[in-house]
Each structure stands twice: as C-alpha cells, then as structure tokens.
Design goal:
Blueprint (H helix, E strand, L loop, with lengths): L9 H4 L7 E2 L5 E9 L9 E8 L2 E7 L4 E4 L2 H11 L2 H15 L3 H10 L5 E7 L2 E12 L5 E6 L2 E3 L3 E3 L3 E2 L5 E8 L8 E6 L7 E4 L3 H36 L1
Antiparallel strand pairs: 1-2, 2-3, 3-4, 4-5, 6-7, 7-12, 8-9, 8-13, 10-12, 11-12, 13-14
Amino acid sequence: MDRFRFLLFLCCLLPSVADYSKDQHGYFMFSDFLCYLPSRNPKEVQYLIDWYFNMELTMQYNSSVGGWTGFTPAGLITAAKFNADKHDVVQRILERELVCQRSVEIIYETTETAKVEPNVSLQTVEDNDSTLECSALDFYPKHIRLTWFSNGQEVTEGVTFSDVLPNGDWTYQAHTYLTLTPGKQDHISCMVQHTSLKEPKIYNWESSKNHTENYIIGGVCALLLGAVFLCGGLIHYKLRRRSF
C-alpha cells in the first residue's frame, strides 16, 4: 500500500490552518497545510505549507528544509521575513509536532482498516462487440483480483488487464478485458475478489441474444397470462347469463 498520507482534516484541528482572505482590491491569499507520512516513524514526518496568492504558489514551508522558500519576488521577501521571525520558527515546529507527529498512528490505523467495496460493471467494449470489459471502480484498499470464467471454468487465454489506477481520492479502479470467440455462446462471468467483500462476487454477462430470448419469453408469458384472464372472464360472463 502506498504510504503517502495527507491529513485532510487539518482545517478542523487548527483555526489558522486554511487562511483564506480577500483585500479591498479583490486579491486572494490562501494556504495548504499538509503532513507527509512516509512511515510510522514520527521523526520521518514532513510538514509542508504551500502559500498561494491569486492561485500562484508564492512560497513554501518545508520542515525538512527548516524554513520558508520563496518562488516569486513577493514570496522571496515574505519568506525571508518569516525565516527571521523567531516566533514563526517556533510555531511551525510546534505545529509539526502537535498536528502531524502525534497523529501518525491514528492516520495509519484509520487508512489501513478502511474498506470501500468496488462498483463493478460488465459490458462489451464500445465499437468492439467481440471484447468484454469488466470494470471495478472506486474501491479501497488497492489490491484486487478480477477473474474471467466461461461455463464455470477459469479463462486465461484472450485476457488482458490494466494497471490498478488511482482516482486521486484514495480510491482505485481496475479493468480487465476478454476477447470472445466468434460464434460461441458461452456463459461468461467476471469474479471480483477484494478485502471489502465477505466472499468473491460473480457478475454474469448477458449477450444481446440472451436479452432477445428473455424478451420473447416474457412476451409469451404475458400473452398466456392474458389469455387465462380472458377465458376466465368469458366463463364468468356466460355463467352469469345462464343464472338469469
């Protein structure tokens, strides 16, 4: 599992974490406060502050560097001022300890026990009816297994897999493809195995032929049911006429 951990809830912990303000000229300033946790060792925690002015990164605080670095003329001036301010230096050290280092175990325990069940879809690839796609979306953690079956037997030929791709919100997606043999009408299914599932889930594919057959069967059943009601109504009508 990727060991990048970002404290997304810093705004809830410190009133000064997200400083978002506007002056009389309509200029905006805001900061992103981040904790980078490469391991469970609190000493390895990196504390970052990205300072923006009108969507432009002007300077950054990096605990590994030990101070601020300016990226624009105004950022260079402000960074030098902050680095010379003993109170700011102490404040950043305390923030790293109180907000980041003391939260390492909580963050790791939370992210390692979190589980999100994948959303699975099974369909033919657009513009290519001879290839099936089994997609697992928005799942967590990363590890997942997708397996194709034909008539109850695992399929390995004609199968390709994509990499497990991050969505950018800690969830992932994965895709696998199966090339169909022309003319064969096998029962195809995709099995999904993931830690969020108590047991593997199997998703069956229905071809257009199967859909057509289902519609025909449904139509015949509806006609037969209608005929039964019609006959019942006629019999009831004749019996009532005889009673008079």
